[in-house]
Amino acid sequence: MTRTVLVTGVSRHIGARVASVLATDPDISRVIGVDTVPPSSPPLPSLTRDGGGSLGRTEFVRVDLRSPDIAQVIAAADIDTVVHMSLVSAPSRSTGRALMKEHNVIGTMQLLGACQRSATVRRVVVRSTTAVYGSSPKDPAVFDEDVEPHDGPGHGYAKDAAEVEGYVRGFARRRPDVTVSMLRFANFMGPGVDSPVTRYFAQPVLPTVFGFDPRLQFIHEDDAVEVLRRMATEDHPGTYNVAGAGVLLLSQCVRRAGRFSLPLPSPAFRVLGEMARSAGLVEFSPEQLRLMSHGRAVDPAKLAAELGWKPKFTTAAAFDDFLHSRGLGAVLT
Amino acid sequence: MSEPDRAAEILAFLRRRLNGEYEVDEFGYDPELTDKVLLELLRPIYHHWFRVETVGVKNVPEDGGALVVANHSGTLPVDALMTQVALHDEAGRALRLLGADLVYQLPVLGHLSRKSGHTLACREDADRMLRKGELVGVFPEGYKGLGKPYADRYKLQRFGRGGFVASAIRAGVPIVPTAIVGAEEIYPKLGDMKTLARALGLPYLPITPLFPWLGPLGLLPLPSKWMIGFGEPIRTDEYEPGAADDPMLVFNLTDHVREVIQQMLNELRLRRGHAFV
User: Alpha helix locations (H) across chain A?
Assistant: First the structure.
């Protein structure tokens, strides 16, 4: 059976890697990548490691997901698998939060609407985030997929993701014949990842919230790509946490990076975070500030049981690989 | 151990700590920091200030999941710390306590609590830890026990809804009834500054013989003599896991555990004799 896969968000690092790895699969005849911007801009130097940035034989179509054009792409190409990666985690400096929300939520609605009308779509894989669990001192220390968080996400990326998940669940109810997989990823980590979190750790001095030492979890980009590849080529319906085994405390991360932390009382941290954001340094959204206080850990056991496979990198190994690629590391050896 | 070995060991410890090359579990428990630093600070208090004596340590399972259920007293949860030292040093087991959410909202304290192995008292965390085979500890009286007046000492308070019993049944682990004698006398609570406590968002603000009269010095605990007794484990593995949803059974078992602990308290208190000798 020949298969045609649509990958959204293909102009960013993980999306590009997923598209190129699917393009090498002999069972897949066509990979169509869509995004609002062409894949070459902005060209990240780190993107080229092991050919991650090249889209291979992926056909790129420039589509604004918020417009109904995506329905035409799906109908014209007889798409049977949709991998929806196009969730933006931080507002861009020039366009701001309103556009980010439109892109995330309206974009997903358009895409799901198109999938619902399509007679060919058989499988939908959606990238979500563990941020939907929020970060609160009143919640369990470790989340599994069924935990209802005490303080759900109230704003920003996490709220977008929670709304996207709501629409995806609605779609799964209306189209029970389509296999829907929802993946809640921990923070991506690895040589090619450029995110608020990796930018944070690249700073010379790391502001932290005084009196708090959050637990953090990472998923290595290689493992994230492998999980998405498997989800796109096999049937694994359901919602899954995707994270490297174990946790790192922020203090451990700082020490491993050979950096110094600057503990600030939480109001000062908030103000500094705002200043850094407006100065265009690191983008720290309110939910990331909460993460920096209370941390979050999820249980990835359900994914391992379903796939019979575990991420190769633990949280600590993923972080060390990132540090190594950036030439960072502990002072004492 | 010879001097150079000891120095090398300390250096290796410092290097591991400075480079972040130590392990914490998913709850944030840092066994090395707990053993080498936090408990080390408590051990002189344990041995020389409270002169803690333990009874029935053999009743604590050597491995596998179990639930330690103890009485709570003393205004500040010093009894939790001393029980942790007792179980770590005498039974060789890390105690994983389920604590009030107030603790986890506070800076410093919340994260020290996680690093020393404890977590929030909620069903998910309790079940997860018991499944992993940890020794979990609960104080079912909560603030009602911790903040009770001195006149009510050694009278067990209400045991809540018995959520701890339901967790033990779901995991099929034994309950180890535990009696702590001595904590009642460390900060005898004679009165309560209720209005101020409410304004500060605290469950109570005690008046003791030394606090608030002596300021920070009033936080010095009185050197009472302590005894910690571990009773024979109460099995829960003969119930079906579904029995955890049977309120009658859970209430009965909760009452049973409470009676056993009250009896142990009475016996241990007689055995100890005078509180400060």
Answer: 13-23, 69-77, 96-101, 107-117, 156-174, 196-201, 221-233, 250-256, 266-278, 286-294, 301-307, 315-325
